[in-house]
Amino acid sequence: MSGTTTDPGGAVHPVGAAPSGTAGTAGAPTGGDPLAALRAAAKARTEARAASKAAHAARRTENARPKRSAEELRAIVERGQAELHGRGTPGALDSDHPEATAEQVVAWAVREFGDAIAVACSMADAVLPHVVAQQAPWVDVLFLETGYHFPETSGTRDAVEQQMEVTIVDVLPQLTVAQQDAAHGKDLWSRDPAACCAMRKVEPLTRTLGEYEVWVTGVRRDEAPTRTNTPLVTWDEKNGLVKINPLAAWSFDDLLGYAADHQVILNPLLNDGYPSIGCAPCTRRVAPGEDPRAGRWAGLDKTECGLHV
User: Fold this and answer.
1) Which family does it belong to (predicted)?
2) What is the pLDDT of residues 3-25, one digit of tens each?
3) Is residue 4 part of a domain?
4) Rounded distance between C-alpha atoms, residue 2 and residue 16, angstroms
5) Consecutive H or E run containing 57
6) Is there a contact between 275 and 169 (Cβ–Cβ < 8 Å)?
7) Total of domains in the chain
């Protein structure tokens, strides 16, 4: 039997119909909460992201294999240098063949190493993780949590973890900052920055890289004279694994252009006079015309933390 009803406010509704602002028979809001659909979509994206990450982790576990020997990995380096051309040997340009692009270098690495890849990222920007993740979703991204980072750097790390298809791995020193201060004196970085870097960066990274066959870095030849001869692929004797530098031939403008084209996260300090970003106590702004790394360990006889030498 059909008819109408009148609610306390005087509105007339057909019998069986839901009043305005309440959920209908399908359970979908018809008003009252304009953000409900956005929240539902965000929840769906979060769930899909978590499912994708979990599926990747399961496949990775299923396909896990023992790390290959140094001899086997060295042979892969030789093949890579022949295939990718360019500066396969530091300082030696190949005039007969163009260098491989960053995307080609990553494709080669994925073919050769599968999931046994680690991307090192200082969170000055997320360009390198983005380039790699296009062909290796949920790749491990190693972040050296030194305990001395700018808040902007830590914020960039968190944004990358939330927005990109990568797996952030926080690489921690053996000692906290407080423990290091107690054992070696407060602010070791001001008295012996090499020792501080060794404990908070080099040793933790070396320890962590032991789980992988290759690490990918964002080192570029234009960053400093010490990096002019950076090859696309090389053997890392110190860490005992393959090292590739897909962005070696890029300029700083290339990096910013890629970030703009692909809407990649940048550390806000890049636009505040810090073209090279390290730990806060050891990094200052760079004046116009200065070397991009002039702000690192300024006033000290030190140009590298030890990761790439």
Assistant:
1) Belongs to the PAPS reductase family. CysH subfamily.
2) 444 444 444 444 444 444 444 44
3) no
4) 9
5) helix 36-62
6) no
7) 1
- Residue 90: is its pLDDT beyond 90? no
Give pLDDT tens digits for 250-261: 998 999 999 999
279 has binding-site annotation: yes
Question: What percentage of the chain has pLDDT greater than the value 70?
Answer: 83
Closest CA to 296 of 218, 226, 244: 226
Q: Write down the catalytic residue from 106, 224, 277, 305.
A: 305
Instruction: Give domain status of residue 290, yes or no.
Output: no
- Residue 121 belongs to a domain with what CATH number? 3.40.50.620
Q: Which residue has the tokens 């992201």?
A: 49
Is residue 185 pLDDT above 50, yes or no? yes
User: Which of 142, 103, 102, 147 shows the shortest CA–CA distance to 122?
Assistant: 142
Structural domain harbouring 169: 70-272
Catalytic residue status for 121: no
Largest CA distance in the chain: 92
Ligand-binding site membership of 121 (annotated): no
Query: Is 196 annotated for ligand binding?
Result: yes
Buried b (16+ CB within 10 A) or exposed e, 219-243: bbbbbbeebeebbbbbbbeebebbb
What letter would DSSP give residue 134? T
Q: Are strands 12-14 and 4-6 parallel, antiparallel or unpaired?
A: antiparallel
Torsions phi, psi for 196 (to 5 deg):
-65, -45
* 32 domain-assigned: no
Burial 56-84 (b: 16+ CB within 10 A, else e): beeeeeeeeeeebeeeebeebbeebbebb
